[in-house]
Every structure is written in C-alpha cells, then in structure tokens.
Amino acid sequence: MKNVVIQGFIPAVVTPFNAAGDIQFNDYSKMIKWLLSIGANGICVAGDNGESWAVTPDERQKLLEVAKEAVDGRVPVILGASAPTSAMSSKYAKIAAEGGADAILLMPQTYVLKASREEMLGHFKRVADAADVPVVAYNSPRRAGVSLTVDDIEAICEVAPVIGIKESTRDVHHLTHLIHRLGQRISVMTGPCPFLLLGAALGAKGFIATGPELLGPVAARIMDIGRAAPNEEYRQVHFALTRLYEVLMGLGTWPASFKAALELVGQPAGVPREPVLPLSGGDLEKLRTALVELNIL
User: Fold this and answer.
1) β-pair partners for 190
2) Residue 209 belongs to what domain range?
3) Which residues in 42-70 are b (16+ Cβ under 10 Å) and which e?
C-alpha cells in the first residue's frame, strides 16, 4: 500500500457540467491546474463539491484519469468513494486503486441515519478489504445523517488503513478531542471554513473545505496563518472564510452557489447536473455582492 501523507490545502474540485449534463473534461483539467497554481497540496475528485451522487462509475474513472494527468505526480489525488451501500463504495475503491488514486474519501454508509457501531465498522472494513488503497475517513453529519464520535473514529482506524479524516462537524469540543487523541496518528483535515484557522492552531494537518480557493494564493497560506499568533491578517482571513461559508451554504441548492462563485472569478465550473438548478436572479446578485465586499471581485 502507498505511503501517503495528506496535509495543507486540498480542495474538493467541482465537476463542470454543461447545460446538457455532459462533463467538460477540458475545463476540469483547467480547474485542477488553476488550483495547483494557487498552491493546492492535493486534489479531491468526486467529493461533495464534485456532485458525486450524480457521477456514474465510468465518469468517476475518467475524472480520476484526467486529474492524475493534470497533477502529474506533484500532489496526492483522493477519489470520493462514499455511497449508500458497501458494495458501491467498494466498486469506487477499486476504481481508485486501479486508476492510481493515492487514497479514497469514505464516509459511513449514507442515508443510514442511525447505523450502529458494528454496521459502520463493517462498512469500512468491507471497503478496505475490497481494494488496496489508503482511506481518508469523512465525518459529515449533515451529509451522512450520522455523527462519528472520537471513539468511533479510533475504532475505524483499527479496521481500515486510515491515513486521515475530513472532519466536518461544527463542534469545537469534538475537534479539540479528535486532534488531541488522534492528531499524531492520522491527518486531521478540517472541513467548515470558520474552523480552519482554529484547527491549524490546535494541530490539524490541513483542510478539505469549500471556498478557500476563492481567496486565491491566500488559501495556501491558511495553515501558516492559523499556526501563528493571531494578528490582523488572522482576523481578516477568518472573517473572509466565515462570510464565504455563510454565503455559499445559504444560497441555492448545493453546489450551485459554489459553482457560480467560481464562474464569477473566471474559472470554468459549469452548471450543476439536474435536478439542481444553477444559481440565478436575486441569489446570484447576493453572491456577487458578497464577493465584492470581500474584495474577491
């Protein structure tokens, strides 16, 4: 198994669809190269931002192929493998292993709102047994319908080759205990933007988040800013990340607002795949206004 270290700024890339629902693979490559140019330390393919629920296995395989070519060995590539069943997640894990992904991003079986510890561990073990690829666990209560405790995460580390976790709770207590107990064992990667600087100060290794790329090269400096003593730059960046998160999460159906923001800053993000509608009208103007106020536009 690969010896992979994930850290720093790892964006979850959007999947550019055109109005007919076709993936624009050239635009996808351009997006990844732009992210690398502003300092990305890794790339996450077919995650939440990538509308993984709307991407077929063949499309996922092609996205991975394009990402690997664009990255050209410079940084790790993580492939999203979350699905409602272990069988489907295992299929995605095999695509990752065969396509040269450096790791998979895997949450508990989605839509199982009250999975037991035994069910969650069985899921991670089955997927780990299906393909020889490192795992980045994903704790997203809003997406999966279940919130992993620190005990759960430690138990998952015993049954799967976990090298990191994307931690997307909005709970400072949980984040504090997770880093304290497991921060030397796995890479804790913070999710929600308002927690990025705090996570860095507490010992997180990096972040897989939505919105930092809109700050351009500042995104690659977030970990250094967070680890330094709070100063005016710290406060300004924290406000910008918090405001971005509020706006992006508060407009339209995900990820319409994020794609619209990327388009506004000149990146070929395309439109969401049906049934999600592109951001428009008053919501688009609210987004534009927020980006102007943050000096992004």
Assistant:
1) 167, 207
2) 8-228
3) bbbbbbbbbbbebbeeeebbbbbebbbeb
Question: What domain count does the chain have?
Answer: 1
Classify residue 3 by burial, with Cβ atoms within 10 Å: 0-12, 13-18, 19+: exposed
Whether 87 is in a domain gets the answer: yes
Q: If DSSP states are collapsed to H, E and C, what string results for 78-110?
A: EEECCCCCHHHHHHHHHHHHHHCCCEEEECCCC
CB of 107 within 8 A of CB of 138? yes
Calculate helix-pair angle for 57-71, 25-37, nearest 10 degrees: 40
Tell me if the pTM is above 0.70. yes
Residue-wise pLDDT for 53-106, tens only, equals 999 999 999 999 999 999 999 999 999 999 989 999 999 999 999 999 999 999
Domain membership flag for residue 74? yes
CATH number, domain of 73, equals 3.20.20.70
117 part of a folded domain: yes
